[in-house]
Amino acid sequence: MENVFVMDHPLIQHKISMLRDCRTGTNEFRKLVEEIAVLMGYEAFRDLPLMEVEVRTPIESCRTPMISGKKLAVVPILRAGLGMVSGILTLVPSAKVGHIGLYRDPVTHEPKEYYCKLPESIEQRVVTVVDPMLATGGSAEAAVNFIKEKGGKQIKFLCIIAAPEGLERLHRSHPDIQIYCGHLDRGLDENAYICPGLGDAGDRIFGTK
Ligand code: URA
Questions:
Q1: Domain total of the chain
Q2: What tens digit of pLDDT does each residue of 88-120 get?
Q3: DSSP state of 46
């Protein structure tokens, strides 16, 4: 699928296996999510545009590349997406951070926005939406809808584990965005948990349960 990238780096795969293990505690889980976000971000930002700037080294002046354009935006989908933000900021410390909160409408089962605050000039930024689990794809699809409604144009979506159902839905609704997954799992169970997955990512990141 064009614009869909399933990452096969051994370090990402190893760390995802550690995340899956039900014996992995909150502290370690949080650190692993952050480390995986760094590794995924490194790959996902390969195509960031560069421009030549003039720099004076201790020896002489030269023209040398730097990232061009407005500062990046990283947008976690609340709450589990928060766990990936520090990893992305390790790579791009000057990125602006927006937030999107969604809940599932009890009647229609459609995701509804309860919080959405995005950096200004969103239309000029590369926007990286993060959520560790792409399950049904409903929240991801809605989050990208909101960002596009506010003007977002260059959008990347990063998830650690995806279910085929969610990946297909997000790609079908938004074929223009780049989707990066750490691993593509087997599918969803009757409660929309990813199998084999890692359980509830938010609970495991925040130690709630
Ligand atoms: N969200 C999670 O945290 N885990 C799943 O398996 C599916 C959605």
A1: 1
A2: 999 999 999 999 999 888 777 788 999 999 999
A3: G
For position 175, which CATH number holds? 3.40.50.2020
Name the stretches of the chain with pLDDT < 70. none
193 CA: nearest ligand 1 atom: 6
Alpha-carbon distance 160 to 76, whole Å?
13
Question: Best mutation site among 165, 200, 208 for ligand 1, i.e. most ligand atoms within 8 A of its Cβ?
Answer: 200
pLDDT confidence of residue 108: 78
Range of the domain at 105: 4-206
Transcribe 97-124 into DSSP letters.
Answer: E-EEEEEE-TTT--EEEEEEE--SSGGG
Q: What is the ipTM of this complex?
A: 0.96
The set of protein residues with a Cβ atom below 6 angstroms from ligand 1 is 80, 133, 135, 193-194, 197, 200-202
**Alpha-carbon gap, residue 74 to 59, rounded angstroms:** 37
| Distance between CA atoms of residues 20 and 12, nearest Å | 12
Given a contact cutoff of 8 angstroms between Cβ atoms, the answer to whether 170 and 136 are in contact is: no
pLDDT on residue 59? 98
